[in-house]
Fold each of these.
Amino acid sequence: MRARFNPKAIEQMQEFDRYIKDKDTIQAIIEKNKDKKIYLEIGMGKGEFITKLSELDKDNLYIGVELSPPILAIAVKKLKKYEEENNTRLDNLYFMSFDAIELSSMFNENQIERIYLNFSDPWPKKKHAKRRLTNAKFLDEYKKVLKENGQIEFKTDNRGLFEYSIISMQNYGLKFIEIYLDLHKSTDVFNVETEYEKKFSPFGPIYKIIVEY
Ligand SMILES: C[S@@+](CC[C@H](N)C(=O)[O-])C[C@H]1O[C@@H](n2cnc3c(N)ncnc32)[C@H](O)[C@@H]1O
């Protein structure tokens, strides 16, 4: 996913009250909400998935992480529009922009309940395997911040990335809780669709894995 750099949109994102720039600010928010569970989406894109989840579960905190500031600026714009149109305010939803490989520089040990990875970039070339969000280096980083028995929920339409992720998670020693080879055919599963899922599910199956540390 690419987005044009728009200085005005970036400025508006930086002024948004639920755009969080640094560790101290996010830790202060977490401290204020001690009794709540914290769910992260990494690579949240334009934020449709995490916005919906946070609205369905206002008792807990949702934090979307996106590497690309221009994409996050679009997510902020969309959230503002959504809140205006629906006369609502999602106080339990925060956005951050940083590389997930630095997750443990933002969050403490044992803080996160579950991490969602939705339609992560497949990086199909072998030489780029380390950039895949299910690579062992990222699994290490998730482990540092997840609670004991914390989970990762991973969805993709990319068969290559799905196969790679199974092997990477298996080699890491994660416990497989659920695997779906065609998620949309499992009618009894709770599922919130992402932007990519809506776009690509007409062309083939959606794969899903839930693993536990
Ligand atoms: C293919 S998009 C999917 C967006 C959204 N999750 C969806 O399903 O519609 C993948 C997103 O992950 C972000 N991303 C890639 N590597 C990342 C990293 N290391 N840390 C945080 N975000 C990352 C990209 O910038 C991109 O917006």
Amino acid sequence: MDLPQQPVYAIIPSQGPSIESDRLLLRPVCDSDAEALFAFRSRPEIAEMNHPKEPHKSIEETREWMSTKTFSEGPSDVIGRSFHYAIVDKSFSKTQQRVIGSLSISQVAPFPEIGYAVHPDAWGKGIATEALQLLLKMWWDLPRRTAEGDSAHPVEVEKVFALCEKRNRGSCRVLEKCGFKVVGDYQHEQDELYIFALDRS
Ligand SMILES: CC(C)(COP(=O)(O)OP(=O)(O)OC[C@H]1O[C@@H](n2cnc3c(N)ncnc32)[C@H](O)[C@@H]1OP(=O)(O)O)[C@@H](O)C(=O)NCCC(=O)NCCS
């Protein structure tokens, strides 16, 4: 199947909102998070399920990866903006805030795509599921530009998408728990992927 095509309807602010639950805070990633993000981006278990499959070798490499989260395609008002969030474990004191993962709308063109990772020390506690639900709430709550359709090309229900390797059962489960459905398959080099989609309800 071809990759999805969908314009971005969200109007993305220059400084994104933050959101919290009892145990997590999601706030926009900043440059000083590079070390904390490197702590898990340098782990083979994280690299194995991402593309390219090489763990980050330096904080500088993590900074370069962080810069890829800034949108370079899409409507002119989204270019230069991003929707990249640090997952902060609130059980640590404010001065020792611990970033235990990150997630983002990693691109908006040709379709809005979700990406995330959690530090392996924090796996299996529902962190990714809870953080993704919080991110989706912020995303759906953003103001929207008017969709332009006509009788030949009616506007479809807005969606957000995720590509996930079929063998990545943990991540497929996170997406399913957040309401995503498989809408197709996609092969990227050696990787067999599911295309997941979630409707804006
Ligand atoms: C995928 C990832 C984000 C999950 O983080 P997490 O905080 O452990 O996720 P959660 O605890 O919210 O949910 C994981 C679910 O997957 C299930 N799961 C985990 N490993 C599994 C496996 N090998 N087979 C089947 N289910 C599995 C868990 O049981 C849980 O489901 P449950 O609540 O129904 O029991 C984390 O493993 C990670 O960062 N992986 C590497 C990066 C990555 O894969 N990113 C996504 C790319 S698409």
